[in-house]
Amino acid sequence: MIMLYVVALGLLMFGLGWSTASTLGNDDSSVAYAPDRPEVAIVNRDGADGERLMEPMRAFLAEECDLVDVGTSSEDLQTAVASNYADLIVIMPDGFAQRFATALTDGTASPELEVVTSYTGALGTLAKLQVEDFLRLARIETLGATYGSTVDDSDVANGAQAVVDRLKDNPGAYPTAAVAPDPSAVSDREDNARIVFVTMVKMAAYPLLVAMLICTALAMNAFGGTDVRRRLYASPRRTGSMMLQQFAACSVFSMLVSVLYLALAVALPAVNGLPLSGIPSATLWLSLAAMLVYGIVGVACGFMLSMLSLGSAAVNGFGNVFGLATMFTSGMACPLEMMPQFMIDIGKLMPGWWFCEAVQAVSGSKGVMDVALWWRDMGLVALFGVAFVCLGLVFSRYRRVHPKLSGAAVTQLAEG
């Protein structure tokens, strides 16, 4: 059960920080620029004549758009529109190629395709402009090739194919955006790695406190049962020294857990491709020291609860409530600017607030590290641990004065 708390809360900490890490890990716009490509679906309802015009159109649009298939039935198209499956749906109605050729012969306006654009962005509108450009170029090519004669649908198909062939041989037909390299791109990603690491260390305020509080309380409660205490009090060893050994063992375990959680905080930016060189060595070691002290404070709180002889349900309840209160008032769950003043005041009465303040003081933000502030904040965190230990000793003293060691009543057999 103890390892379940450690592993489960560690995974919770890792999961909470994954969203931030993945967002910052994919934030590489300062290194390269890749414009979004609209998704376009082309539906032909004009048979073979329309297909001869559609093939060059697909080749033209494929240079800067992603072509998708949404089906051809009315139900398929309605589903695609409702689900916003494509940025642009182009429908060539029956007889379009012939009407297009007739308009060229008569010199009238060209017919229009049926289009449906996405309601979530401008990519569909931009793709529609490309469709209109293609039809305009196809019109010009067809008129140039059939000047003074009647135009039929095969001439339109040939003109459309000529547009694709002409643009294919022109290297400047589809220009690409040239972006100069950002000299601060590497430092930006290093700063993102530092932000992810510091965020993860702050998020340890909840799992580290809860895990060590509950694990210590449950472990030391095992020595607080009536039968166990009777044997301990009857042994020649001093109760105080045995209690100190239990506390020391739990403290060593908390240090191991702190190192484990710090390893998770280091692994998260690395897994998301961020350079670990962005984490200053002073930030790393002072964060580890802060987690070690904070973990021992959790042990001290668990020691205090064990001296009250609370059951496992009560220990679990107190640990989770205390941990959640610490999480929501320490500034790790939401920015301080969004927290009401009374929550900030409550947070300052808990060790989690000062732990997060200490980590922030040595986070290296803007190249500033306030080690003196770190010592002040960690001193306050340590005082919480001292207070918990003192309260635990008071409860232990009271329990030794009132041991309640009476065993079960002995059954007396009646004499006949």
UniProtKB/TrEMBL annotation:
Pfam family, one: ABC2_membrane_3
Residue ranges of domain ABC-2 type transporter transmembrane in the record: 4-393
Molecular function per GO: ABC-type transporter activity
Domain of life: Bacteria
Keywords, ordered alphabetically: Cell membrane, Membrane, Transmembrane, Transmembrane helix
Record field: transmembrane: 204-226, 247-271, 283-306, 313-333, 373-395
Subcellular location: Cell membrane
Membrane topology label: Multi-pass membrane protein
Cross-referenced InterPro entries: ABC-2_transporter_component, ABC2_TM
GO CC terms: plasma membrane
Predominant cellular place of this UniProt entry's protein: membrane
Protein name stated in the entry: Transporter
UniProt organism field: Bifidobacterium cuniculi
